[in-house]
Amino acid sequence: MLKPWLNEGLLTSGSKKWRSRRKMLTPAFHFNILEQFLPIMNEQAYILSRMIQDRQTKATENYIDVVPLITNATLDVISETAMGVKIESQFDKNRDYVDAVSRLEILFHKQVHFEIHINNRFINRVSDTIMKRMVLPWLQYNFIFFNFFTEGRKHRQDINLVHQFTMNVIKKRKGEIQDQKNRNLDLNANEYSRRL
């Protein structure tokens, strides 16, 4: 059920492919590499603490639900460190993308752990969808689920939105890298012509 969203990735691949991909990723999580992201993590943690304080002062109850706040902070950290893009989900920006990721994350979490998260605003639709897919065996087939059911079509839209956003980020980063290479080539050409 995760393959439409994650394709053949680290979470969904078989053991042989998983081992080779894991070996490629291990250096990316070295302490020295992660240390360069501390300013981003600190900035997002500061924003999170301000958001919690704001919610706390406005709260009518003795408690606040921090799960959505932490989820948004996590998404901001991951998007900026992994993709180099500021989502600013803690400030309610890029709402379509954030909501789609939230729905997909909830669906993933439900499928893996079968837990109920009552305080999430998407819970009713997602839990109904999960229950249908668990109870009705024919809905476990992606073809039937995505083509013949409204929940499946909405899920497909969420997947497409997340994939489209990711592809736009990749395209933008490729463009930035190519621009940097072109600037470096121009600088090198100018340096070489000055020497002659």
Mean pLDDT: 75
What is the number of helices? 9
The major β-sheet equals: none
Radius of gyration: 21 Å
Which series of helices and strands comes N to C? HHHHHHHHH
Oligomer: single chain
Estimated helix fraction = over 70%
Structural class: mainly alpha
Say how many strands there are. 0
Inertia-based shape: extended
Enumerate the spans where pLDDT stays under 50 for 5 or more consecutive residues: 111-127
Estimated share of beta-strand residues: under 5%
End-to-end Cα distance: 63 Å
Keywords: Endoplasmic reticulum, Heme, Iron, Membrane, Metal-binding, Monooxygenase, Oxidoreductase
GO molecular function, one term: iron ion binding
Cofactor: heme
Subcellular location: Endoplasmic reticulum membrane
